[in-house]
Specification:
Elements: H1 2-13, H2 19-49, H3 55-71, E1 83-87, E2 90-96, E3 99-100, H4 102-134
Antiparallel strand pairs: 1-2, 2-3
Helix pairs in contact: 2-3, 3-4
Length: 148
């Protein structure tokens, strides 16, 4: 929240138009809400039914579901296509004559890991809010039914 407040003056004083921000925000919310409703909620309900609804289990499921959402777009062969990009300050070639290079796979793995990290954070935030709503006065204390 503090970061958003810090960036707000720069955003409002920018000479460029802000028309695309609403669409990007809508797209991000739509995709993430769909993934949560289609995959996350059923996974949580299954863990709860199996009495495995600890922070560790939810973190692992968040990691896997976050990684799966990015893992579907692996580098494929694109005949006659060459491309490169800036990767951590260094120009790299990701495709040479349609064949993905090792750097294409490195950037792919980095993207999957980043989405997995987002999944873990989302799952742990969900767990914290769920515990807080379930046990408001003892949300941070360990309970015997927690399993973790």
């Amino acid at each position: 929240m503090l970061l958003l407040l810090r960036m707000l003056p720069d955003y409002l004083s920018s000479p460029q138009s802000h028309y695309g921000i609403g669409f990007v925000l809508f797209a991000v919310v739509a995709v993430s809400a769909t993934l949560v409703l289609v995959l996350g909620v059923p996974a949580f309900l299954a863990l709860r039914k199996l009495r495995r609804d600890s922070w560790r289990s939810l973190g692992i499921v968040g990691f896997v579901l976050g990684a799966l959402s990015a893992a579907t777009s692996w580098p494929s062969r694109l005949d006659g296509y060459s491309a490169g990009q800036n990767w951590h300050g260094k120009y790299i070639e990701t495709y040479v004559d349609g064949v993905p290079t090792a750097y294409a796979w490195f950037t792919y793995a980095e993207g999957v890991a980043l989405f997995a990290l987002h999944g873990v954070v989302g799952a742990l935030v969900f767990y914290g809010v769920w515990r807080w709503r379930q046990y408001p006065k003892q949300s941070l204390q360990r309970r015997s039914s927690d399993g973790g």
